[in-house]
Specification:
Layout lengths: L3 E4 L2 E4 L2 E4 L1 E5 L2 E6 L9 E4 L4 E4 L1 E6 L12 H10 L2 E6 L10 H11 L5 E7 L8 H7 L3 E5 L12 H12 L4 E5 L3 H13 L7 H5 L2 H18 L2 E4 L8 H9 L4 E5 L1 H5 L5 H4 L12 H13 L4 E2 L8 H4 L17 H10 L5 H15 L17 E11 L18 E11 L2 E5 L2 E2 L28 H10 L1
Helix pairs in contact: 2-3, 7-8
This protein binds (4S)-2,6-dioxohexahydropyrimidine-4-carboxylic acid and zinc ion.
(4S)-2,6-dioxohexahydropyrimidine-4-carboxylic acid (DOR) binds next to loops.
């Protein structure tokens, strides 16, 4: 018997839409049928005039637990996701301790048990944990994160040598490696020179991390991915310049995807004076021309997805007259969907394309498809129900994240997720968090549904050569 029927709505897919009722049985979608066909569900919910899309899949959130729970924890972070129509998140390893070994991954799994939405957990690929990578894969890491440049947590950025060995090891697993693609040595050099010269203003943050920092990193990582056959993902694309090495790598057949985040689409250098250190994020928000190029790339498919780099800090940590002393990043998992739906309302992107970049493409890239990323019979009932004309105002004090500060303060949005369903269960209803949803979230599995891995040049890999040396 059907548990829930959502009746009277419009179901939106990445390639079209239909007026249909959606039935949920247990955790899955059990039918998509003509309106009014199913009448005997345990619960019938009228979603007349509303749109149903697959829940958002945000490949880039920092939930801070263990270690920095004054900024966020797995409960507050996933509650913010539920309020934002996001049904799956992938969480980053720059916690304290970082997720750099199987033991630390298992500790994080215990923290994540209180999540109310589904999640993946990133393992770290750094300078000092290469030997831990097989254990992380074995323990269930869903993907890897490589900080090519320093950011919050100051984890040691891997040298190109360490990166290559990490890629060689991970290639065989088929798991994707997400790159913080900013080259550490260039930034450290420039920041030191700026600090010595007493240059401390918000705009000097861009001066320390100009677009070449990102261009060089994307190009270098793409070459290593091409050589090893490792799958890679370029996080938070911030510049027009990165699009060329990304598009060229795709043309060469490298399994590479890219994401951008709302701040790179909606903010630019003209906002630094108004926002001060609040705008500080790595990589930095750049010029209007960068936003425009990224918009075009998002619409044309060069950039595959929208994520948030949800990076909560306290207002005190974010506010400092010396830009170098302000923490980087801000919360985003709750505001991404309303901000993007506002652009849909303005005609800048179709709702179908939004489904593709917010859910279908991330599901495909990280091995969650076909169970997630689409509304279809047999898939998980992970759903955001949208009121496309609902107006709201972003206010940090109302965010469910602990990070009560946002560069989007005061912005009016048009369109919001009015219900969020995760595997058949309402976690948010009528813009209110549901009771007793703590612990409903589950870790996803990535590998089974990924196409087979295609590692290359393994005869030249360090592991092969070291094993041969040991055997002789
Ligand atoms: O601004 C940022 N903040 N960029 C990152 O890559 C990390 C993040 C954080 O963890 O605070
Ligand atoms: Zn991040």
């Amino acid at each position: 018997m059907t548990d829930i029927i959502l009746t009277g709505g419009t179901i939106v897919h990445e390639n079209g839409r239909e007026r249909a009722d959606l039935a949920i049985t247990g955790e899955a979608i059990s039918a998509i049928v003509a309106p009014g066909t199913i009448t005997d569900a345990k619960e019938t919910i009228d979603v007349g005039g509303q749109h149903l899309i697959p829940g958002g899949i945000d490949m880039h959130v920092h939930f801070r637990e263990p270690g920095y729970t004054h900024k966020e924890d797995w409960q507050t972070g996933t509650e913010a996701a539920a309020m934002g129509g996001v049904t799956t998140v992938f969480e980053m390893p720059n916690t304290n301790p970082p997720t750099r070994s199987a033991t630390e991954l298992r500790d994080k799994q215990r923290c994540a048990a209180k999540a109310c939405v589904d999640y993946g957990i990133y393992g770290l690929l750094a300078e000092d944990n290469i030997d831990e990578i097989p254990g992380l894969i074995e323990a269930g890491a869903n993907a890897f994160k490589c900080f090519m440049g320093n950011t919050f947590g100051n984890l040691p950025s891997p040298s190109t040598g360490a990166m290559l060995e990490g890629f060689e090891i991970i290639a065989g697993s088929g798991l994707r490696i997400s790159l913080h693609a900013e080259t550490a040595s260039i930034m450290a050099w420039r920041q030191e020179r700026l600090v010595k010269a007493g240059l401390n203003d918000p705009l000097h943050h861009i001066a320390a991390r100009p677009e070449i920092v990102a261009i060089e990193a994307v190009a270098r990582a793409a070459i290593l991915a091409e050589w090893t056959g490792a799958r890679v993902h370029v996080l938070h694309i911030s510049s027009a310049g990165e699009l060329r090495p990304l598009a060229e790598a795709k043309q060469r057949g490298v399994d590479i995807t890219g994401e951008t985040c709302p701040c790179y689409l909606f903010l630019n250098s003209g906002d630094y004076e108004r926002l001060g250190s609040v705008i500080r994020v790595n990589p930095p928000v750049r010029e209007e021309k960068d936003s425009q190029a990224i918009w075009e790339a998002l619409n044309s498919g060069v950039v595959d997805m929208i994520a948030t780099d949800h990076a909560p800090h306290t207002p005190e940590e974010k506010t400092n007259d010396v830009i170098w002393d302000a923490d980087c990043g801000f919360p985003g998992v709750e505001t991404q969907m309303p901000l993007m739906l506002t652009q849909v309302a303005k005609g800048r992107m179709s709702l179908e394309h939004y489904v593709k970049i917010s859910s279908a493409n991330p599901a495909r890239a990280f091995g969650l498809w076909p169970m997630k990323g689409r509304l279809a019979v047999g898939a998980h009932a992970d759903i955001a129900v949208l009121d496309m004309s609902r107006e709201e105002t972003v206010q940090a004090k109302n965010l469910h994240s602990r990070g009560k500060i946002t560069p989007f303060e005061g912005q009016t949005t048009i369109g919001a997720p009015v219900h969020t369903v995760v595997r058949g269960r309402f976690v948010q209803r009528d813009r209110t968090l549901c009771a007793d949803v703590k612990g409903h979230g589950r870790q996803v599995t990535s590998i089974q549904t990924m196409p087979k891995a295609d590692p290359r040049n393994q005869d030249q890999s360090l592991a092969t050569i070291l094993a041969a040396g040991a055997a002789s």
